[in-house]
Amino acid sequence: MSGILDLHVSRYAAGADMHPHRHDQAWFCLIVEGGYEERILGMRNTHLPGDLLYCPAQAEHAQRFGAKGAKKIIFAIDDHLAGLLHEHAARLDGRPLLRRSDTLLALGRRVDSELALDDPYSSSAIASMALDMLGHAARGLDDACRYEPRWLRRVRDYLHEDPSRDVSLDTLAAVAERHPVHLARSFRQFHQCTVGDYVRRLRVDQAALLLRTTRRPLLDIALDCGFAGAAQFSRSFRAVHATTPSAWRAAMR
User: Which one, 65, 109, 210, 243, has the greatest CB density within 10 A?
Assistant: First the structure.
């Protein structure tokens, strides 16, 4: 009923290396002790206590742990809760959801204590606190978006209207009524990626939905979603999901 699945604590030794690997299930992860460097979906991030992360299903990632090792609260969510997050456009693409949050760190430590207590009430308390983590992170992301300038939101709305159409920085600058250089710099500041990366992600998301819900040929999906052909589609899809479109479709069925 809570929407939280398989919540547990994982501990990692100081200086340990975890080689590139994938999970069949998507996971949320809150660091409560130590820290580590992670390579995931073409990104390299350093994680410390209070960071809440999301690892998409089938996303290849590798980790190198620091001098103190690490302790993480890890959990998955059910389809109902996943649908709710998607409905509200929560950003679940492998980038950290929230960093260095004292509130999340306190919740994570309480979860750790409840797991150690393990009495008849622990499971309900733990599920409630995990939901609190997601709620706090979602509000934090929403608050950050509220500071996004209105002109920059116009650009994002334009991109979302039709991700498959060709766009240039000059076109988007005209939509924003700003200089192209200012647009590019501001976009990266607010969304931690370039305009090109953002468009690629929109197209890949659109293609992933068609891969999961239809049996249409890969080339048809590629062209409809704005890719120049099968090769570009495969490269772009692999950059986001670290696997090919055909392998991803097979894994999702």
Answer: 65
What is the reported pLDDT for 173? Answer: 94
Asked whether the CA dihedral 213, 89, 231, 27 is positive or negative, the reply is negative
b/e burial code for range 149-178 (CB count within 10 A of at least 16 → b): eeebeebbebbeeebeeebebeebbebbeb
Which segments of the chain does DSSP mark as H helices, in order?
79-87, 102-117, 122-146, 150-161, 169-176, 180-191, 195-213, 218-224, 230-241, 245-252
Yes or no: say if 102 and 43 are a contact pair by the CB < 8 Å rule.
no
CA dihedral (219, 225, 226, 231) positive or negative:
negative
Q: Which residues contact 143 (CB under 8 A, 6 or more apart)?
A: none
- Cβ neighbors of 154 (< 8 A, separation 6 or more) are 175, 176
Give the Cα separation of 29 and 10 in Å (integer): 10
**pLDDT tens-place string over residues 82-99:** 777 766 555 666 666 778
Tokens of 213: 């819900």
Helix (H, G, I), strand (E, B) or coil at 75: strand
CA atoms of 116 and 31, how far apart (whole Å)? 17
pLDDT of 184 higher than 80: yes
Separation between Cα atoms, residue 101 and residue 249, nearest integer Å: 36
Residues in the chain: 253
Q: Is the pLDDT of residue 43 over 80?
A: no
Question: Does residue 213 register a pLDDT over 50?
Answer: yes
Q: Which residue has the tokens 């300038």?
A: 149
- Average pLDDT on 5-12 reads 93
C-alpha–C-alpha distance, residues 134 and 218, integer Å = 35
